[in-house]
Request: fold
Amino acid sequence: MSPTFGIAFGGGGARGLAHIHVIEALDELGIRPVTIAGSSIGAIMGAGMASGMTGREIHDYARSILGRRAEVASRMWRARPGTIAEAMQGGIRVSQFNVERILKAFLPEAIPGTFAELKIPLKVTATDYFGHKLAVFNEGDLHSALAASAAIPAVFRPVERDGRLLIDGGIYNPVPFDLIEREADIIIAVDVVGAPEEVDRKQPTSVDLMFGATQLMMQSIIANKLNQSRPDILVRPAVSRFRVLDFLKIDALMNETADIKDELKRQVEQVLEARRQVRQAEG
Reply:
């Protein structure tokens, strides 16, 4: 009997576009995971895969939008506040976009409205801001869960759901492989957090420092988790030179992270070969 696979897609904003290579590689290997978990952009990519989209379909869809500035601008305009009252809700917050509206404008139609309609079970993380803990969603409304998971502080306003105020799932669990480690034989984790890099020796802006500090915090969380337990396969695309909101740099990002496909395939083959040897030794 073939081993089952589970996959955890990590958070990292635009850096998470590299997840598409991972999905394409799994498609090419004929691997269909039995369980998926995701944080932030990883939750969105996981929802695409869980809905039955292929890596190629996700890739084509992302390029068709992010590869054209006019298309991005059009969809952002569509996501603008519907009324003055909505724009002023809770005071003037011009820097905080409504992530639910933005996702509605950008998500492919293939992603359904509820978890129950997905073809593969999915766990979506968010951070319960006032509850001071991780929130995990795997049932009910899917879009609000994805919005909560992607609600990067200072960029998007928090999402309210089930009486809780929710922000970015990557804050508490950047690569949520631990949520599915008992649900499949082989667990793959994809870390796209990256780390601050010196670019042309420029002094980082206050925004760069804020996002960079968040990266360092997430890296610390991941390192601590890996000391406690490890996924069978961990891949880390080379995404550090890209910023969290560099979605319009999709072509460069995809080109520079393409080698992750071959790396993942090699690691999958190594794990499968190790399992075959164990079975032979036991037999």
Summary: The CA atoms of residues 6 and 83 lie 43 Å apart. Confidence is low (pLDDT under 50) at residues 83-95.
